[in-house]
From TrEMBL:
GO molecular function ontology, one term from the record: glycosyltransferase activity
Source species of the chain: Morella rubra (Chinese bayberry)
Keywords for this protein: Coiled coil, Glycosyltransferase, Membrane, Transferase, Transmembrane, Transmembrane helix
First and last residue of the signal peptide: none
Pfam family, one: Glycos_transf_1
Domain of life: Eukaryota
Membrane-spanning ranges: 48-69
Biased composition (Basic and acidic residues): 993-1003
Protein name (Swiss-Prot/TrEMBL): Glycosyl transferase family 1 domain-containing protein
Location of the Glycosyl transferase family domain: 380-491
Amino acid sequence: MGSLETGISLKRDNVFRSSSAGRTERHPFSQRPRSRFSRFFLFKKLDYLQWICTMAVFLFFVVFFQMFLPGSVVEKSGASFDEDMGGGYGDLNVLKEMGVFEFGDDVRFEPTKLLEQFHREARETSLYSSAFNRTLQRFGYRKPQLALVFADLLVDSQKLLMVTVAAALKEIGYEIQVHSLEGGPVHEIWRKVGIPVTIIQTCDKTEIVVDWLNYDGILVSSIQAKGVFSCFEQEPFKLVPVIWIIHEGSLAMRSREYISNGWTDILNDWRRVFNRSTVVVFPNYILPMIYSTFDAGNFFVVPGSPTEAWEADARMDLHEDDMRVKMGYEPEDAVIAILGSQFLYRGLWLEHAIILQALLPVLLDFPLDNGSNSRLKIIVLSGDSTSNYSVVIEAVALNLKYPSSIVKHKALDGDADNVLRMADVVIYGSFHEAQSFPDILTKAMCFGKPIIAPDLPMIRKYVDDRVNGYLFPKENIRVLTQIVQQVFLQGKLSPLGRNIASIGRRTARNLMVLETVEGYASLLVNVLKLPSEVASPTNVAEISPKFKEEWQWHLFEAVSNGTYMNSTLRSYTFLDKFVQQWNITQRGSSASVNPTNDVFLYSIWEEEKNIEVANARKRREEEELKDRTDQSHGTWEEVYRNAKRAVRSKHDLHDRDEGELERTGQPLCIYEPYFGEGTWPFLHSSSLYHGIGLSTKGRRPGAEDVDAPSRLPLLNNPYYRDILGEHGAFFAIANRIDRVHKNAWIGFQSWRATARKVSLSRIAENALLDSIQARRHGDTLYFWVRLDLDPRNPLQLDFWSFCDAVNAGNCRFAFSEALKRMYGLNHNLDSLPSMPVDSGTWSVMHSWVLPTRSFLEFVMFSRMFVDALDVHMYDEHRPSGHCYLSLSKDKHCYSRLLELLINVWAYHSARRIVYVNPETGEMQEHHRFKGRKGQMWIRWFSYATLKSMDEDLAEEVDTEHPSRRWLWPSTGEVFWQGVYDRERHFRHRQKETRKQRSKEKIDRIRKRTHQKVLGKYVKPPPESNTTVAVETIAESN
């Protein structure tokens, strides 16, 4: 396991398995030996004499060990009992150090991989921040956004924990939104805390969808919320940090059944969810070990939970005497429960033997019943119901000379709560150094029972001796006997013991709240990679004591907690339904396809698909070459004739869908770039809109969307697809635009605008179309997503201040460097294109409309700008993923800079800028020409300047064929006058060649030698005519 450093190994894992085998099966000899002597026997090559000596030493230690068995000690006189106990325990420590006994000290969970990842990321961030020679700034204009996702809003202890944690996180600066698959009574509690709640659906249902990119992190509670992971496994939500909080052990128990039944598909489906989680959090150190089947190296523990206190409160109404009668005890009996570690290890029986040995003198202090039996009853609570540990306890009790009716064994997974509820005193008899306070000991304290425990560091941290519990030194077991004698007076619990139990109950009710709150706050700091405009949360020390000292019980007082008793049952019911649904799905798939032919059919499908892809690519290349050869760039008449010829030659007009036919006749087409299945619910299906997929994978089935990578192969490179973002769709559409776009106006709208509910309404669409057709504003940039209303800009900053805020304070520097490289300026460019602070605002989120001709001019400018950015940042960003426009590793780097680029170009190229209200369609012109005088850089952004630069770059590519890495030729069409001249000359030569061949053919025909006619055939007249002529001649004669 990636996360278990020295945790439960394969040998030790057997203690968590349901097995009815004996001790030899749980600890076979072939497992890794634990003692030095076993390792000596197994791994040293010894001759016969050495074996004899070794066996002699072994027998000596067997005798030595027998001297310290409880049975031999009991037979000693009562006068020397205390001395033997003290000395004997000290000798056991010696044996423990020698490796003869072990008490589970190596059973530990350490999230090694996760901690190493946190340290490595922090080290890399610090290293690259200093390597850029640029100061990275955090502005903190908005709060970090968190989403809490639940399967339901029913009342249980998990909701109590999450409400407490959420209230504390909100106080240190987090903004939180709750999403749930089902409603419930806790909805009102979240409202009281001031956290909004939304009822959502899984991603296979598109009625209610969420843009998960709005959140900096997501916390998912319970295994029952598994369905929501279908959203996080889709692009573009795959990289959103997800913290999965698991409190149940039901899935770990059922995983044994899945393994035994060979249900590997179900196991793999759950592993997929565990692998998607950034961190899987457990409330104790037991759960990550029993979930080892699903460990992907991302397990983590935040200790603390109100579960034990909640369960104890739910059971407090049960009458104690009734439980005693049901379990075979009398109300007058004094019941002592001995608890142990939840781990099973080879020294466990010895711990119980030591505790039972210490309780043996206490028998004399209890009266006898009518059957001459002692009123003292001892229950050893350990193991599970399928193990045979009760045999071990019976053997230990027999050796200690206990009467047969006193010592009994109960399994932890059976009547643990009932045993704790009816016990008078609870003794924690494990000497295992636990990593957190034992949950079962917490539950005993919540039941109001006085506890007696060894003074281990983790127990001593929360238990004050003789204040809220009793502690005894593990080096001196005699103290345990004295404590028990003080707790009971004349066979009854003493008043001091009752008072200590009452204080202990109040302590345990809010145990480890501070550790839980601080644990989640610290985990979020390590997991979340906050953008530069997001404020860092304040220190945990600034949280109010009311959130760190107790769970938020008061919020749940008015809500019935009866539903909690079914929480465990609900988790098992959910797993049963999941398996049933899985079986139905499998039967359906097996009925449609023969399982034996799955591999064969899949291979045929793959082969056929590859052939179709290859043929389509070859056909597309041939068409592009043919069109490139035939298309004229001379006069508009030639272009028009060639375009009409191309349309007639396709003969595929009948294959177009209705949307494409409608788009052909309208003045505007708005393209919606998207990447991944998670964006599908936010895309429009009307004829005004046209989807453009940034990846061949994840395209909408049945939709005639534009395949951007096929139009621009650069987008097949994941690096440039991510770093360009939606700007890559501009390059794809502009590349030979006449083949895909035939409208006078072109627009783009981000799918995130639809998610934020700022997309164009039907009224706004009609208003925009009317304005375009009426030509009210001329060459204009229409936009409808405002900068001053952007959630990233709550302070309504000006253009350059906002750009700096979302780019780690280096937007101006990056823009300046790109312009210098783009225009070839050697001197320092101290000033930037001015973006004035007036009553107007700017466009964000790539949601705007332009004339098609102006769009091509903008793409011409942005291609050179992006190329300059790439030259400036590629060498640092590509290998490391770090750039000075982000505080952490960021594959999108300068995409936020490109989001604002349209504003700079539109303002300084003298385009009108008009805002369209997305709801009402009302239009308002911003940054009017009168206010731009003396501020526009028209010479730098004019069409003549940009066209000249574009042709210079195209000429360099066409003539010099540079071998260096160069992005510009890959972002679109490379064309200059020389290309046109060369193509025209080539076509002229082809025409002359055809004329020459035709002329030569005619000359050859003319120069052929013709043979003279040898005779002439005269067709004879018909017979009837001949007869008539003969008769006529005869008569005349």
